[in-house]
Amino acid sequence: MLARRIIPCLDIRDGVTVKGTNFLGLRSVGDPVEMAAEYAGEGADELVCLDISATLEGRKTFASLVERIAGTIDIPFTVGGGIASAEDAGRLLLAGADKVSVNSAAVRRPQLIDEIASRYGSQFVVVAIDARRIGDRWTVTTHSGSRTTDRELFSWAMEAEERGAGEILFTSMDNDGTGKGYPCGTFAALSEMLDIPVIASGGAGSVEDIAEVLTAGKADAALAASIFHYGKVSIPQLKAALASAGIPVRPAP
């Protein structure tokens, strides 16, 4: 079994790291450059930075902030928010991103996935899917979960893979920021359906939650924010606990 990845996420609004519940009630939790350096030093396998207001406000992710973060870390770095073209992706690559995450713009125009993958390679493209359960259906949402669409999680993930996505980052909007755990059955079904890695996001509140989504949920990586931002557990502590449970992880420094 390949080593499972632990990925802190920095949700950024107006240049500041923020966190809330279900993307609401956002409050500042720190400087993204300083937090990125701290998490990289603790042994994070990758880092994700999402400009969560870029799409809502109709502006682009600031490449200058990406440059500053990239200059402080030596781990893979994914950037998302306001990416609507292959040119937008290219600017972030030049600024230091290793991957880009596309979400709302890809739902609106799925060809965006093809365009970025064909120009830069599938390994550069992460398709982020924010979905919430409505009835018995996982409905895809956009604009930080504020708008529902007619797309369904599993069919959209399969289409994204076919179009060239290298990874799927699925966030359960029902669980995000609640600390009540991930919907592991849904992650397991998604992971079994796809041939590309699935990153689990939305709901981590404990070491046990992360262990469960990496085992029962069959996710290739666990993304979390609050559990790290508020000091519930450090990355070295988490990795030690996962290793003790028999889950393969890269050791922390």
Structure described in brief:
The protein is an alpha/beta fold and 253 residues long. Helices cover 36% and strands 28% of the residues.
Question: What do these coordinates show?
Answer:
With 253 residues, the chain is of the alpha/beta class. It has a single domain, classed as Alpha-Beta Barrel (TIM Barrel). The chain is built from eleven helices and twelve strands.
Beta-strand content estimate: 25-35%
The level of helicity is 25-40%
Give unreliable regions as ranges.
Answer: 21-25
Distance between the termini: 22 Å
Number of contiguous helices: 11
SSE order and pairing:
Blueprint: E1 5-13, E2 16-21, E3 24-30, H1 32-42, E4 47-51, H2 54-57, H3 63-70, E5 77-80, H4 86-95, E6 99-102, H5 104-108, H6 111-120, E7 125-134, E8 137-142, E9 147-152, H7 153-163, E10 167-172, H8 184-193, E11 198-201, H9 207-215, E12 221-224, H10 226-229, H11 235-244
Parallel strand pairs: 1-4, 1-12, 4-5, 5-6, 6-7, 7-10, 10-11, 11-12
Antiparallel strand pairs: 1-2, 2-3, 7-8, 8-9
Which features does this protein show?
eight-stranded parallel barrel; alpha/beta; 36% helix; TIM Barrel
